[in-house]
Amino acid sequence: MTVVRPRLSLALWLACACAAVQAQDLVKRKPGLWEVQTRQSGEAAGQKLPSQAEMQAMLARLPAAQRAQMEKMMREQGVGLTDRPDVMRYCLSPEMAARDITAQPSDPNMKCEHKLTPVSATEVKFSFTCTSPHGNSRGDGRAWDITPEAYRTSMTMQGTMNGQPMSMKMDQTAKWLGSDCRGIKPLPN
């Protein structure tokens, strides 16, 4: 699990960061259950990030009890796993859906500053810098095709994790599944 945990922590942080991109004039997203498909590439801790097929194989090799423990931990952090490693679900509370500022990652030790530049009511460019005891990161990207029930994002990120350099490019496509979060806790405020 040590190989999977840092990558899942990074994935959880990224889901929170990208899910929270909003600005005052942007279309508001609906509260409820959202599904996000992610394509990523890059390096973390000196190793190339696994491909989607490699992630699928890692999840398949986990003992059932360990996978259940990981799924429980993720659900408590506001993220639900699916049968596909490139697809996660998160619950967006009504308060978060109405809010205009970005949310902090679920790690209370991670502090982030965000800059949002609205391009239109359905597109925003963003940049961020984050610090934590585990490392620092900075990145930029954009979110577009923002509707109450869908959005797309693309971003790049660089920094360090546990003293090791990391870099990542990530693209996401998200869709709203409905108002019922199906047992997934809302993302942390």
UniProtKB/TrEMBL annotation:
Keywords: Signal. The keyword Signal applies. Pfam families: DUF3617 (PF12276). Residues 1-23 form the signal peptide. This is Uncharacterized protein DUF3617.
